Every structure is written in C-alpha cells, then in structure tokens.
Automatic annotation (TrEMBL):
Keyword Mitochondrion on entry: no
InterPro entries: FxsA
One Pfam entry name: FxsA
TM ranges: 75-95
GO cellular component: membrane
The keyword Iron is assigned to this record: no
Top-level taxonomic group: Bacteria
Keywords from the named record: Membrane, Transmembrane, Transmembrane helix
Protein known as: UPF0716 protein FxsA
Amino acid sequence: MGRAAGRRVRLLAGLWALAEIAVFVLVAGWIGVGATVLAALATTVLGWALLARQGGRALGELAQRAREHRPPGRAASDAGLVAVGGVLMVLPGFLGDLVGLLCLLPVTRPLVRAAVGRGIAARLGLVPAGPVRVRSARVPGATIPRPSGATRVIEGEVAGDVVDTGPRST
C-alpha cells in the first residue's frame, strides 16, 4: 500500500471514528447514557449471534462447493460480507452496527454485494458495455440449423473494423 493510500485509509478511519462518537453522543442525549451503553452492548451481543449463525451458513456453503469441486462464486462474497459485517457489529458504534447489519442479513446482503461490486468495477475502470447498435441487411443463404429441423434466417451485417483473411478451408 502506497503512502497516499495509507493516508486515505487513516483519514477515513479517523472520520469514521468521529462520526461514531458524534452518533453516540447524540443517542446518549436522546435516550440517556445508561440506555446508550446498554444498546451498544446489546448490538454487540446481536452481532455475535448473527455472526455465528450467518457465518456458519456461509462457511457451510463454501465447504459444500469445495466438496463438489465447484467454483465458490457468490458463496465467497457472502462469506466475506458476513465476516466484515460481524466485525462491524461486534465493535462499538451505531454506524458500524448499521452497516454490519446490512452485511449480515440475507435479505440485504445482495444489495451490499451489488454496491461493492459496482464500486470495485468503477475503481478498476471496468465500465459495463452500453447498448450495442447493429445494422441489419438481408444476407442470402445465412441460416442456422435448429434442432427441430427448421431453419432460422439471421439478417445483418458486421458493423465495425473487420479484417478479411481470405477464404477458409473447412
């Protein structure tokens, strides 16, 4: 990790900590210090319980995929989100609890997974392809055999830079 990235991480961690303190003070002013401390302890206990339950499920799914020699796919991202969510729920702070809860609950996890995926794709410069425009023209003899014996004609032409390498032998 470079110096600039390290500075950004420290800055974000500091801002997160300040936001957590501000929210804690606001909640304490609203419901009282004792109730706020109890709420923070309750969310920690809830975080441990959800981490145990959802973590077990996520790891079980990963193990099942490994036994079946299938790629981990969504199970790996679920396990990662459950781990991050569990850590956020166990650490003190209401903002972390909220984000952790979104990562831990199976109902909201796909939303978090999609948001993280879009963020990573944007960071890597991977932009989804836009609409594809195709010009169409009738091409005689362009058919594709179908299983039923009927053929389907596909009309069109290649629009773009195509290099013709000459006749092909089959």
